[in-house]
Design goal:
Two copies of one chain form a homodimer. The radius of gyration of chain A is 26 Å and the shape is globular. The relative contact order of chain A is 0.11. In chain A, helix 17 (about 445-460) runs parallel beside helix 18. The two termini of chain A are about 20 Å apart. The first copy, chain A, has an eight-stranded parallel beta barrel with strand order 8-9-10-11-12-13-14-15, surrounded by six helices. The first copy, chain A, is about 35% helix and about 10% strand. The first copy, chain A, has helices at about 50-55, 75-80, 90-95, 150-155, 160-170, 170-180, 220-235, 250-255, 265-275, 285-295, 310-315, 325-340, 345, 350-355, 380-395, 415-425, 445-460, 480-500, 505-515, 520-525, 530-540, 560-575; strands at about 1-10, 15-20, 30, 60, 135-140, 185, 200, 205-210, 240, 265, 300-305, 360-365, 400-405, 430-435, 465, 620. By secondary structure, the first copy, chain A, is α/β, with parallel strands linked by helices. Chain A has 22 helices and 16 strands. The interface between A and B is large, with 160 and 160 residues.
């Protein structure tokens, strides 16, 4: 067996990475790959999409917002200052660089296909400044609509769509039509050219997000970049940098420049750091400054807690676990302190205009998600979901791509309702859920309590699953936790893909099962989600090299191996003629001869599988 | 917090163990306990049920079948003998002890409420011999029907039923009626008085079985007894001793005498050892001798692969993974070798008569279960299931309790069909499934691939889940694997109980979530499925004792703790009067004010919850 990364042709010069596993029997299997190109020590990833973005001719370089010391939110620096925080007008926030020039119009671009709603505030001037390092910063030209949604609506198939189509094994125009309908998104900030495009939508493979990021009590930039690389090695389709500790800007910069997958953030965390962690002192100006900073860095999607309306806060009063979303609790505290509506809600259109100019997607945050099974599917949760539906419509009107976040903690019997309600209220925008955890009683094992819910909700149509690690509720995940969380969620996502009948999803299972039945141990390991673990567990009992070709393992030993007996049985049948009648039905594909209904059933209306003609993985048999 | 084992009154002098957790806020929570009484070094568990069994007056001591060297299937001893195996007539098998005396009639008891089918063979003489050690061996008196099913049908509420009712928090007559209907079983061999009764049925808490047992390449009696104790410490409701290696009889003896939970076996494994691992040399006589040996030792349920009919074998010919059940493959090989019907099928009534005399329950084995998602729900699987339905009826006619085993490897969308079909074909006999694994691609993590399927199938009505450890497909589980498998399955079973709406199931979740919201860290740990792990993961980041009372953890740090902010918000609301309107709806129980349907939905007809009036766990608040 060998395993190598290949680039396959996606048309129009697009090259798409796959991992090809060559098996000991001469077959090969191609696997979806998220690890990105090989890293060169000390260098950022190559800007693969830079040419695609430039060729479209609809973005232009802007002098970037200058980086301020405050952007890194260093607690020590902040605490030593005479004032607890500064306003956005202070040079400390805005820097002393040149103000915006005529090169870039002060107004955000008008979406090409949708009118700006009446409620949209007049776009304010964006702060401008020096270019960050040597990296150019791009933004839409005046009047240009540069989001994948805008292209899709205009009928344009972008290279990003071609890339995605090849990865998913579907037709590029199918990708375009799903994006145009808002049923799928391709998070792809023009300032993150290092990313390899991927798609989030219920008719595509279920995706997994890995959260990384430091906190005030655990922090190291290198550690976070290593977690990123580690997470994508184990299959993370996106990562969210949820840093809340020191060096927040610099950590994010290193993460984005080294990430082959889209990067999401919760800009509110950085904004709060800028006001010393005092929710009441947050302002739209500070938040706005923060999102421009992050748009220009290359963040691909923002979690925005605009659905936590002031009127919803009281609905959480009698909950067992109150508000468990950090962003939700911050905005609730702000609303209470000011007696005003959530400023993210009131400034939502301006937010859309800024994000549209960089093609940053929304991940509409569920700030009131339940934090315990007791609070699942309650009024607060669904009141917010209705607001998220309204915001979905508004964001799409600005040409901004939207997905919607979901719970949380939900018992199995209440999961389907979440999926159906979200699809209805949010017009089929992709659903992106945290788990859900199906019980509260297993801290230390919440990757498992939630993988159960994740598999179920993925099957029912959730497009992306946010992983949960064993440390959930207990501490910040380290490298090992990241891996445990990733594997549990790749399992959940794949179980969902199988259940959805996604074309080609079963090829890997079948290849592994054939290897298992043939006692091709090394092939079995290599086809595993975690070859290292599979090999290690096998070798703990039978470390000898000969055991890798043995027709048994330590589980049953040679005498009781059912597969060995099965083989003997088939050998016997082929020799003595007592074998199965060749006219007998051919197993799974054949109709039943017993009086039972073989039709599979399940919860009503599972998600549709992609109708594309080709498949994302394929078995090639030598000589055919 | 303290945690102690209490005995609570179950009526009629029955004392039922519970674990009471005393929380730091003065509340207590009572938990179902499977760990059994504290072990005294070097001593077997006390025979708690001995008095109950004797009092009924329907069993009598028999001179037990003598133990032969061959019973331990020692490979070395066997291989040194001039002949590969001996026939049952050889002294080596039967021993030289006295033959059956007049004390015990040669015929098996006639079931009280059902006629012996015409097809029943004339019961043969059972081999008798010396008492095993000092332990008396019991069997039904002539004409007595001593199974819990027989008592239930006669309207008798046994102490076993009282014990179970208290554990489950339901009315004893509800237990009786479910057992009488065959919808639940209480595995309770009269020769296993050490066991604490438990019930397996879809209207009760979902149970978990842990497999232990050695194989030819890994073996130690002490290790297996330690695995048993370890498994019950983590919540195993039954254990199966699947030993196939040396010392098979002695290992089982130590396991049963030390097990506070019912013990299951697959007698075929020992029978095969008696014929040197050659399936074709198996005979009914050898198998019959083996089950009598095990009935007299105290095994509570037997997996019997009587449903693998000769005609089914050919249906597996084109499967990806053939036959993956050891028992299934052994019987298929036997059928092929002899060109005859499965001897377990043809001697099924005699088997029932023997098992009825000791109240050993059937676990009708699914010898043709799918071993890969490719083979799920195929003709072979369902043909066997139809046969298991027929055998369920026959066993019940003999008064024998029956549960039915299920798959295996099944993708999520095909699980519901398995449950519905089993219920229909097997007249609602309890379903007992292995997982199912929802994908084949994660060896090393099959406790997770299968916990997903187990939670789903448990919700839909499966009564007991057979755990799968991380070593599945790779090797024999060790102590750590046993724990990982147990925790994953306790999660799955509990997630199912929550989804079924089992009364009281959510109390532990709610208590833990309240502790979480109140930052009562020690309470949170103590209420966890694995307090050690929860504490350890927390302490890896924040080891200082003060962190146990801190109002945050390392996950978010003090500044971003949503729960802390939630508390601040509630404090603010109560002080300044801006709090929630006291007339506002009280959360989950209240009706929605948003235009959405709050009704939870799910796959059709999840299992009914127990209608009993009391609950198995309860919160007691001091002063009330």
């Amino acid at each position: 067996m060998t395993r190598k990364r290949l680039l396959v042709d996606g048309g129009a010069g697009v090259k798409v990475p796959v991992v090809e596993v060559a098996l000991s029997n001469g077959e090969t299997l191609r696997l979806y790959d998220t690890a990105g190109p090989e890293r060169e020590p000390g260098r950022d990833l190559p800007p693969m999409r830079a040419g695609w973005i430039a060729e479209r001719g609809d973005v232009e370089p802007v002098s970037a917002r200058p980086v301020a010391a405050r952007d890194d939110g260093r607690a020590a620096a902040r605490l030593s200052a005479p004032r607890a925080h500064q306003t956005p007008d202070d040079p400390g926030i805005r820097g002393t660089g040149p103000r915006e020039t005529a090169q870039t119009p002060a107004t955000a671009p008008t979406p090409a296909t949708a009118p700006t709603p009446d409620t949209a505030p007049t776009p304010a001037t964006e702060p401008m400044g020096a270019v960050v390092g040597a990296r150019p910063v791009w933004r839409a030209r005046a009047g240009a609509a540069v989001t994948q949604l805008a292209y899709a609506r205009r009928g344009e198939i972008t290279n990003e769509m071609r890339f995605v189509a090849t990865r998913e094994g579907v037709d590029p125009d199918f990708v375009r039509s799903e994006v145009a309908a808002g049923r799928a998104i391709i998070p792809a900030n023009v300032n993150h050219p290092e990313s390899e495009p991927m798609i989030i939508g219920r008719r595509f493979l279920v995706k997994v997000n890995a959260n990384i990021g430091n906190s005030a009590v655990r922090a190291s930039i290198d550690e976070e970049v290593e977690k990123l690389t580690w997470a994508t090695r184990w299959g993370a389709d996106t990562v969210m940098d949820l840093s809340t500790g020191p060096d927040i800007h610099t950590t994010r910069e290193r993460v984005i420049r080294n990430s082959p997958v889209p990067v999401g953030t919760v800009p509110l965390y950085q904004a709060l750091e800028k006001v010393d962690g005092r929710p009441a002192e947050l302002t739209w100006a500070i938040y706005r400054d923060t999102i421009i900073e992050q748009c220009q860095q290359g963040v691909d999607y923002f979690t925005v807690h605009a659905g936590v309306r002031a009127a919803h806060v009281g609905l959480t009063a009698r909950r067992v676990t109150g508000i468990v979303s950090r962003g939700g609790s911050i905005m609730a505290a702000w609303c209470r302190a000011h007696g005003q509506e959530n400023f993210l809600y009131t400034h939502f259109d301006e937010l859309c205009q800024i994000m549209a100019a960089y093609d940053v997607s929304f991940s509409l945050g569920d700030g009131l998600r339940p934090g315990s099974v007791a609070d699942a599917n309650d009024e607060a949760q669904f009141a917010e979901l209705a607001t998220l539906g309204e915001l979905t419509t508004r964001a799409r009107a600005h040409g901004v791509q939207v997905m919607v976040e979901g719970p949380g903690h939900v018992p199995l019997d209440r999961i389907q309702h979440n999926v159906e309600l979200q699809a209805r209220l949010c017009d089929d925008a992709p659903f992106y859920t945290l788990g859900p955890l199906t019980t509260d009683i297993a801290p230390g094992y919440d990757h498992i309590t939630s993988a159960i819910g994740a598999a179920m909700i993925g099957w029912l149509g959730t497009a992306m699953l946010c992983y949960v690690t064993p440390k959930e509720h207990l501490g910040l995940p380290d490298r090992d936790d990241v891996k445990e969380g990733m594997i549990a969620y790749k399992i959940a996502a794949h179980a969902a893909d199988l259940a959805k009948g996604h074309p080609g999803a079963r090829d890997r299972d079948d290849a592994l099962s054939r290897a298992r039945f043939d006692f091709r141990w090394e092939d079995q390991f290599e086809l595993s989600l975690d070859p290292d673990r599979a090999r290690e567990l096998h070798d703990r009992s039978l470390p000898a090299p000969a055991a890798k070709t043995a027709h048994f393992c330590s589980m049953c030993g040679p005498r009781f191996c059912s597969m060995k007996i099965s083989h003997d049985l088939r050998d016997l049948a082929s020799v003595d003629g007592t074998g199965p009648d060749p006219s007998a039905p051919a197993g799974p594909a054949a109709g039943p001869s017993v009086p039972v209904d073989l039709a599979t059933t399940g919860p009503s209306a599972p998600a549709n599988a992609a109708p594309g003609p080709s498949v994302p993985v394929e078995i090639t048999t030598p000589g055919r």
